[in-house]
């Protein structure tokens, strides 16, 4: 007995299911999509979702601070105390690590902290885009800091800055071994700085993406478990977003301090 | 295998790994990251940091002011306390002095009174003693006189011979002295 | 060897790096709790460094994850 039409129907049904069943793709929300292509003078400055969210972050940071400091009072309100606490937080960090000379770097460190922090946090809004999950964004920031530190060191110490790569109190016989290690560890700084932030954000959002996928696709009796996990992980991601922004800035402070004081 | 940005943007991203490693979108992101960062820095520097610094400074100066005021009023209070304590000490001294004086006065009065009393008593005692002595003397004289008269009478009667009063008196004196000795011996 | 299965194996191997980070995190938090138990008054100061250290160790694990993703792209 041969019922070819059943077989074909079955095959079609399978194909149908394969088409309609949601496909797990937790990396989809890292996709950069160009909204407007702009290519003046061969330079690609297209507006993508990443760029859009950078602007939103800038707007959110400025907006929140504006709201907090709209009519500043001597006895601060809630938002104002948060803004002041943020200022003092960064100030303490700079004072602890760089010391008194660090005052002139305050705007850079402050901006860096809030840019990274709000890039991390706005990425947690469902449907948004996490700017810091882009390796090139964190890489640009890290390389910028790296270049800035070299520039600072060269300005402060001139050629003497090269002694940065020679550890103190080392027998001269070990120098050929240690100097390359020091140079490599110095060059690894921007890499580790950028990859740490990017990997944290990517991993966190991937996990969230997988959990959301399960929440959306499982039956109701199975979905509550991953849903609970998404709640927990979102809280965790808020914490990690803060910690990573803190570490990014604190390491920047350490690097600037190294350039100024050479170990 | 690295697909072009637009191809991977259309879908099928999973097969080509992380979308972050897609070099075709790097250029615009580098540019806009730098622009956004410096824009944010400019805006923060211009509109956010000055008010925070102003308010923190004003609060710090206000607190320093208040502290100074508190310190001043504390000093004033301390001064007042010292003043008051000084006054208290002075008052205590005055009171103690007055008390001492009163005590001394009282002592003086007492001693005076005691002295007067003693004097009076001594005077009275002396007077009494004198009186007693006088009375004794008188009594002795009377007794002697009586004894003289008696013995004279007795002698007259006994020897019927009158002796002059002088001799008789001497004999009586001897007799009395003997009598006194005997009485003392007893 | 086929490139796809090999890349899957490679991704799995890259993910084993998480084990090291797990050991590191456990060691660090264990030591931290020990320190807090000995000196509860130091908890405020030390916990800051614990969290920073935790983030560093965690980042090491995520380097492995990034490697896995890179292999996934090449596979």
Automatic annotation (TrEMBL), chain C:
- State which residue ranges cross the membrane: 6-29, 49-72
Membrane topology, as annotated, equals: Multi-pass membrane protein
Give residue numbers for the site Reversibly protonated during proton transport.
58
Gene3D superfamilies according to UniProt: F1F0 ATP synthase subunit C (1.20.20.10)
One Pfam family cited in the UniProt record for this chain: ATP-synt_C
Name the domain of life this protein comes from.
Bacteria
User: Domain V-ATPase proteolipid subunit C-like, which positions?
Assistant: 9-71
Its subcellular locations are:
Cell membrane; Membrane
Keyword annotations of the record: ATP synthesis, Cell membrane, CF(0), Hydrogen ion transport, Ion transport, Lipid-binding, Membrane, Transmembrane, Transmembrane helix, Transport
Q: What does this protein do?
A: Key component of the F(0) channel; it plays a direct role in translocation across the membrane. A homomeric c-ring of between 10-14 subunits forms the central stalk rotor element with the F(1) delta and epsilon subunits.
Identify the NCBIfam families for this entry: ATP_synt_c
Family in the record: Belongs to the ATPase C chain family.
The record's listing under PANTHER family reads: ATP SYNTHASE LIPID-BINDING PROTEIN, MITOCHONDRIAL, ATPASE PROTEIN 9
Q: By what name is this protein known?
A: ATP synthase subunit c
Originating species: Candidatus Magnetaquiglobus chichijimensis
């Amino acid at each position: 007995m041969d019922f070819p039409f059943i077989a074909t129907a079955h095959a079609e049904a399978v194909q149908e299911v394969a088409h309609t069943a949601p496909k797990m793709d937790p990396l989809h929300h890292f996709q950069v999509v160009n909204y407007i292509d702009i290519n003046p003078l061969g330079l690609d400055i297209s507006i993508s979702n990443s760029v859009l969210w950078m602007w939103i972050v800038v707007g959110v940071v400025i907006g929140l601070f504006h709201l907090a400091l709209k009519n500043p009072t001597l006895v601060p309100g809630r938002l104002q105390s948060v803004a002041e606490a943020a200022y003092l937080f960064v100030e303490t960090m700079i004072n602890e690590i760089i010391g008194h000379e660090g005052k002139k770097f305050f705007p850079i460190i402050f901006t860096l902290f809030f840019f990274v922090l709000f890039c991390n946090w706005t990425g947690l809004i469902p449907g948004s885009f996490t700017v810091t999950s882009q390796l090139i964004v964190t890489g640009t920031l890290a390389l910028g800091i790296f270049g800035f530190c070299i520039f600072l060191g060269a300005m402060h110490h001139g050629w003497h800055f090269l002694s940065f790569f020679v550890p103190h109190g080392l027998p001269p016989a070990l120098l050929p071994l240690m100097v390359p290690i020091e140079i490599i560890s110095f060059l690894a700084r921007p890499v580790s700085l950028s990859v740490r932030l990017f990997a944290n954000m990517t991993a966190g959002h991937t996990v969230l993406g997988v959990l959301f996928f399960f929440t959306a696709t499982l039956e109701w009796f199975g979905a509550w478990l991953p849903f609970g996990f998404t709640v927990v992980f979102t809280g965790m991601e808020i914490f990690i977003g803060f910690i990573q922004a803190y570490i990014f800035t604190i390491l920047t402070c350490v690097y600037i301090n190294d350039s100024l004081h050479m170990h | 295998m690295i697909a072009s940005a637009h191809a991977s943007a259309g879908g099928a991203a999973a097969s080509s790994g992380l979308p972050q490693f897609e070099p075709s979108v790097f250029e615009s992101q580098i540019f806009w990251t730098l622009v956004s960062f410096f824009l944010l820095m400019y805006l923060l520097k211009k509109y956010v940091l000055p008010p925070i610094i102003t308010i923190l400074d004003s609060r710090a100066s206000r607190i320093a002011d208040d502290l100074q005021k508190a310190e001043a009023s504390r000093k004033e209070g301390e001064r007042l306390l010292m003043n008051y304590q000084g006054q208290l000490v002075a008052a205590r001294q005055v009171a103690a002095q007055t008390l001492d004086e009163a005590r001394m006065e009282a002592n003086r009065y007492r001693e005076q009174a005691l002295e007067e009393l003693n004097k009076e008593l001594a005077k009275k005692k002396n007077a009494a003693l004198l009186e007693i002595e006088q009375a004794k003397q008188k009594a002795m004289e009377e007794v002697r006189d009586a004894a003289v008269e008696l013995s004279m009478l007795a002698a007259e009667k006994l020897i019927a011979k009158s002796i002059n009063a002088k001799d008789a008196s001497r004999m009586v004196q001897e007799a009395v002295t003997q009598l006194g000795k005997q009485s003392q011996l007893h | 060897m086929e490139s796809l299965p090999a890349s899957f194996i490679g991704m799995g191997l890259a993910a084993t790096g998480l084990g090291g980070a797990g050991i590191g995190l456990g060691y660090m938090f264990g030591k931290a709790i020990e320190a807090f138990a000995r000196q509860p008054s130091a908890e405020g100061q030390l916990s800051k460094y614990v969290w920073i250290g935790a983030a560093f160790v965690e980042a090491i694990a995520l380097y492995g994850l990034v490697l896995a993703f890179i292999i996934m792209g090449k596979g």
